[in-house]
Known about the structure:
This protein is mainly alpha-helical. Helix content is 84%, strand content 0%. It is built from 15 helices and no strands.
Amino acid sequence: xxxxxxxxxxxxxxxFRALIMITSFFTSFMSARYLGVEIKGVYSYLYTxxxxxWLILDMGVYRSIxxxxxxxxxxLQEVFNLSVFLFVLESLLLGxxxxxxxxxxxxxxxxxxxRGSLILxxxxxxxxxxxMQLQSLYVGMDKIWNHSIAQLLSALFLVVMLLIGLLxxxxxxxxxxxxxxxxxxxxxLVGSYLGMVKWERIRFSFDPELLKIIYSHSFRVFLxxxxxxxxLRVDIILIKRALSFSEVGIYSIAAHxxxxxxxxxxxVGVLLLVKLADCTLIEDKWHIMRKILLVFSLILGAANIGxxxxxxxxxxxxxxxxxxxVYGVYLWLIPASFSLSFGSLFNNYLNSKxxxxxxxxxxxxxxxxxxxxxxxxxxxxxxxxAALATSVSYTLWFLSIVAYEHFTTGKKLMFxxxxxxxxxxxxxxxxxxxxxxxx
Length: 439
């Protein structure tokens, strides 16, 4: 396969992500306006459950696909066929099981589910999983432009449909409407991916060797991703259990700001995994990590300073007075915004080394700390306690990865991560090269 141009990919994907971050902001504030605090909490809770469900269903395959495509390019079409087959099969099976056991699922979630809402939830689960696997295929094939276009179209669809909801669907079942447009955006994403590459005719066949390759790599990634996902979202579940959907609604907006800031690290992390998988020398990986951490430190620092100055005012204008308490919650989440992005980047670094067992152990330990701290702090400080617990656990996760790698590689890593003057010069020159007047 062609050599990965990390700078070009980051620039391409980053430019689209900037647009997607803007649309995500509009999606967030319009959904808050449309739903109100309590229904926003229900919606965020359901989306958290959907996220856990498709991740478990995926078994880590989507995380390992970019790595597998680079290492086994001849298996590309077969991986695609398997993804399509599982999407169809899982949609049918989950729909049947869901409808047959609707009372059980309603009791488990603590919500009264209708047949329509359950079908929409099932479609969200299976289409989200399928979309993530297709996204990983495109990244592995180094088709970053196509991947970015599909993501932007899906994000714009949500904005348009939310605007329609605000103007013309105020008396509709708002939760059902949000679930329906969520499914629509996922199907648009999947359709875009399917139409951008001319795949061969799909043949459903079972290749034991392919399954062995996929799941031998993905199982460790699955456990790591599962623990990381629980680490990122367990606070929503615990707040719902201890407090109310209104508090979930407030906290979910603050958590969404963290998610928006992490969009860039998620994109770069996937691109980074592909690039690092091509590196043979560990020192080359460290040089890349140092430069990436420097860039993200500057970006996140500027974003958080901007929020400290303008956040309360912006929340009042865009979300309404009911959501102004988000500002106080987010202040406790500022350390989390740094640690989550850095931890995600370093977790992809670990995965580039063949998905070592430590990439499972460290997020599991951080998850345990997060649950314990949430159970301790929420009864005392409510959602502010949940934010503090999240910041502490995310920071422990990031620092534990760095400490482990430092002490298992001859205590050399920290030296390589210290920014050099040349890094700032390179960053400045590259930024100026993108501006016509700077050339």
